Amino acid sequence: MKQNPFNQEELMLFFEQLWKKSLNPFWVCKPIADDFEMIIANPAAQALDKRQTPGTKFSELIAHSGYSHGILSGYYQCLATKEPVEFEQTVKHNGKEFVFRTFLVPILDDNDKVTHIWGTSHNLTDFLDPQRELLALNELLDAKVRERTEQLNHAMEKLEKLSITDELTQLANRRYFDKALKKEIARAKRSARPLALIYFDIDYFKTFNDTYGHSAGDRCLKQVAKVLAAHAKRSADVVARYGGEEFVMLLPDLHKEQALEVAELVRRDIAKLKLHNENAPAGQVTMSAGIAVVQDNFTADDLLKLADDALYKSKADGRNRSLVAD
Ligand SMILES: Nc1nc2c(ncn2[C@@H]2O[C@H](COP(=O)(O)OP(=O)(O)OP(=O)(O)O)[C@@H](O)[C@H]2O)c(=O)[nH]1
What we know:
Blueprint: H1 8-21, E1 26-32, E2 35-41, H2 43-48, H3 58-63, H4 72-81, E3 85-93, E4 96-108, E5 114-123, H5 125-163, H6 174-191, E6 195-202, H7 205-212, H8 214-231, E7 238-243, E8 246-252, H9 256-273, E9 287-294, H10 300-316, E10 322-324
Parallel strand pairs: 9-10
Antiparallel strand pairs: 1-2, 1-5, 3-4, 4-5, 6-8, 6-9, 7-8
Helix pairs in contact: 7-8, 8-9
C-alpha cells in the first residue's frame, strides 16, 4: 500500500488551514439528552451565525434563528443510522434566504457509539437563484398563455354565438335552425317520436312597415320574437327567425293537438301586445301559423313543405289563425 505522503504534523497543518480558510461552514457537535451541543464551528460557519459558539444548544439556535424546521431530524437520523446523512436546509441571514446542502458524518468511538457529528454545508443559493428566476419567469409565461387562451376562447364563443344569432331579434338564425332541424329529425327517427314544426308569419307586415316606418317594423319584430321565445319552454325547443317576418319553432315530441295549442298561445299573446296596425282587419298586428307534425319516414324538406303549405292555407283562409297540415 502506498504510504501517506504527509506526516501527522503536516496533515494537521493542512486541516487547520482548511478549517480556517474554507468558504464552506464546518462544525462539530455532540449529542446530549434530547439535543445537540456545538463543540466548535469554523469562521465560515460563524460568519453566517455568530452564535455558533462552543456550548450552544442546537434547540436554542433553531428557536431564535432563521433555520428551517426539521433540520434536527437529520442529526437524529445520523445518530440512529450511524451513517452519513445529506439534506437541504434554508437559513435566513440578514433578511436574505440561503439554501444549503448539508452533509453530516457520524464520528464513532471504539464501542461503535456516535460521540460526535461532523457537519459541513455547501451554499446552493447562487446556483438556485437563476433557476428560481427562470421558474418564476416560466410561471409568468404560463399565466400569460392561460390568460390569452381564455381570451381567445371567449372571443371564439362570442363569434360562434354571433354566427348563429339573428342580430335584430337575438333569436337563433336560419343557419342554426337548419342544423338543429337535421339533428332533431335524426333524434325523432331514432326514438320513433313525433316532431312538430310551426311556421309563423306576421300578417300585413308590409303595410305596417309602409305606414309606421322601418324602425317601428324592427321594434315590432323584436316584440314578436320575445313572445315566441317565451313559448319555447323546453330545452330542446328551438325558435328562430327564418326570414324577414317569418319565424319557425321546432318542438320535439309534440303531437298535433299540443303543437296547435302552442301556436294558439303565441297568437293570443301577440294579440295581447296590441301593436296598432290600421291596415289589418283586426286593427292590430296579428300572426298566422302553419303546423306540421311528422313521425317515422320523413325528411327536413317534407316537414318544411308541410308547414309552409299549412301557413299558406291559413293566410288564404283570412290570416290571424293556426292550421295543422293533414
Ligand atoms: N322593419 C323590417 N321589415 C322587414 C324586415 N325584414 C323584412 N321586412 C319587411 O317585411 C315585409 C314582408 O312583406 P310581405 O312578404 O309582403 O308580407 P305581408 O305584408 O306581411 O303580407 P302577408 O304575409 O301576406 O300578410 C316587407 O315589407 C319587408 O320589407 C326587417 O328586418 N325589418
